[in-house]
Write a structure and sequence with these properties.
Blueprint: H1 37-48, H2 51-64, H3 66-93, H4 100-107, H5 110-142, H6 148-165, H7 167-196, H8 225-229, H9 231-238, H10 243-246, H11 254-283, H12 300-308, H13 313-345, H14 363-371, H15 374-377, H16 384-419, H17 436-453, H18 459-484
Helix pairs in contact: 1-7, 1-11, 2-3, 2-9, 2-11, 3-9, 3-11, 3-16, 3-17, 4-5, 4-16, 5-6, 5-13, 5-16, 5-18, 6-7, 6-13, 6-14, 7-11, 7-12, 7-13, 9-16, 13-14, 16-17, 16-18
Pfam families: AA_permease
Membrane topology: Multi-pass membrane protein
Transmembrane segments: 40-58, 70-92, 104-122, 142-164, 176-203, 223-244, 265-286, 316-336, 356-378, 390-413, 433-454, 460-480
Length: 485
């Protein structure tokens, strides 16, 4: 099974300190403030639009039915919005490198901050290699006589160069990779709606399909339970939106641009995700929407494009999915290396990991993180389905834990803010409806995390994450105990 669904993006944007900032002592160079609003908005949209949508959306429809899938993605967008509001308030108030790891250290505890930082690093280091492997396998379908390992090395080298060169080059490359996905989704929705209403021909039928397929098997053909059972997949699809708040440290005038980006991105994402589900549900029988997630030809995007009459639909989607995978690897290497840099910057790793190039990229952290991707490169050759499912479980579960910590941090931060005698009006950006917003975000994310334990296929990854979390706390305790003595 080819691990396409891991083609997601999560980005952590470090803050950029002034060369004269005393808090930056001990660094050879500051991390660069190189993200413009153009980069922020486009990368945030691309962050949530991955191969989980291109290949995984059909599976959600097949399990829940069309109406159930629409409800699932709407709930997923609501949860993401709650978390982003919490993170936006924290990021505008305290745009620091390390982001939610730093917030957890300050508003939950140093041990939890240490654990969250390593957990986010694990999310990407564990899956980075699978992105290169999946992209290489797709290239091999075009060029069967060229070794998969050659493509893997080429893709790994390209992503490494984009990251090591400069933050500006990374941001620019992400902008264009994300643009490919955004254009594809917009074209799919527009053409799909034209086919639904009979403006263009669909499957050589004389009449417009309209929305007869949506409720042809009833409102909830599989019952209500699958809506909740698929929430982990749906939440994972929306993961990556957290970069909007975290990017405050690299964005000019975060008090103005972060709230604007949050509101703009969430509505666009809801339109993109729900619009995609509506088009697929209207044009394809729901039981045929998710036959398999292991090949490009099974993508509901390919099926719809073919029935509309678009030539080379499979090749087009193969190209789009390759860009999604490379985009995921590009941002994943960036995110994981910055987490490692932040640990070193706080003296929790040897100082060599904080070493920066003249252009402001953490060269040692990037190199070590790239080496950590090696186990993922083996996923296609040694027990691929087992490794893939465990890696998927690890990526989804660790991200939900990070989201939970964000909600807790914002709740504790606001309580401390009020206890200090300040008011909501004193905040540059305040999440609305406190304390309802962080409490609901916490409850929904916790339910999603627990749902992973009910899936036998994800249990090994679930237990592995719990063990990793425990080891993080133990190592942090030992580290500080030694430091105190």
């Amino acid at each position: 099974m080819t691990p396409f669904i891991l083609g997601k993006k999560f980005i952590v944007m470090p803050s950029s300190q002034s060369p004269h900032d005393p808090s930056d002592q001990g660094n050879s160079a500051p991390l660069k403030r190189a993200m413009s609003t153009r980069h922020l908005v486009m990368i945030s949209l691309g962050g949530a639009i991955g191969t989980g949508l291109f290949l995984g959306s059909g599976e959600v429809i097949a399990q829940t039915g069309p109406v159930g899938a629409i409800i699932s993605y709407f709930l997923g967008g609501l949860i993401a919005y709650l978390v982003m509001l919490c993170l936006g308030e924290l990021a505008v108030h305290m745009p620091v490198s390390g982001s939610f790891g730093e917030y957890a250290s300050k508003y939950i505890g140093p041990g939890t901050g240490y654990m969250i930082t390593w957990l986010y690093w694990l999310t990407w280091t564990a899956t980075l290699g699978t992105e290169f492997t999946a992209a290489a396998l797709l290239m091999q379908e075009w060029f069967p006589h060229i070794s998969m390992w050659l493509w893997t090395l080429i893709f790994a080298a390209v992503v490494f160069v984009l990251n090591i060169s400069s933050t500006k080059l990374f941001a620019e490359s992400e902008f264009w990779l994300a643009l490919v996905k955004v254009i594809t989704v917009i074209a799919f929705i527009v053409l799909g709606l034209m086919a639904i209403f009979g403006i263009i021909q669909y499957n050589n039928t004389p009449s417009a399909p309209l929305f007869s397929n949506v409720v042809s098997h009833g409102w909830f053909p599989q019952g209500l339970y699958p809506i909740f059972a698929t929430m982990l997949i749906v939440n994972f699809a929306f993961s990556g939106t957290e970069l909007i708040g975290v990017a405050a440290g690299e964005t000019e005038n975060p008090a103005k641009n972060v709230p604007k980006a949050i509101n703009a991105a969430i509505w666009r994402l809801l339109i993109f995700f729900v619009g995609t589900i509506v088009v697929i549900s209207a044009l394809l029988p729901y039981e045929q929407a998710g036959l398999s997630a292991s090949s490009v030809s099974s993508s509901p995007f390919v099926s719809v494009f073919k029935l509309i009459g678009i030539s080379y639909a499979e090749d087009i989607m193969r190209f789009v999915i390759i860009t999604a995978l490379l985009s995921a690897a590009n941002s994943g290497l960036y995110a994981a290396s910055r987490m490692m840099w932040s640990l070193s910057n706080k003296k929790q790793l040897p100082q060599v990991f904080a070493k920066l190039t003249p252009s402001g990229t953490p060269i040692t952290a990037l190199t070590v993180t790239m080496c950590g991707a090696l186990p993922g490169l083996l996923s296609e050759h040694f027990a691929p389905e087992t490794i893939f499912k465990n890696l998927l479980g690890i990526a989804a579960f660790t991200m939900v834990i990070v989201w939970i910590s964000i909600c807790v941090c914002q709740f504790n931060f606001r309580r401390q803010w009020y206890k200090s005698g300040k008011t909501k009006a004193d905040l540059d950006f305040a999440a609305p409806l406190f304390p309802i917003t962080p409490i609901l975000g916490f409850i929904f994310c916790t339910i999603t995390a627990i749902s992973m334990a009910t899936d036998p296929q994800m249990l090994p990854g679930f237990y592995g994450c719990l063990i990793f979390i425990a080891l993080c706390y133990i190592s942090h305790f030992v580290f500080y105990r030694q430091k105190q003595h």
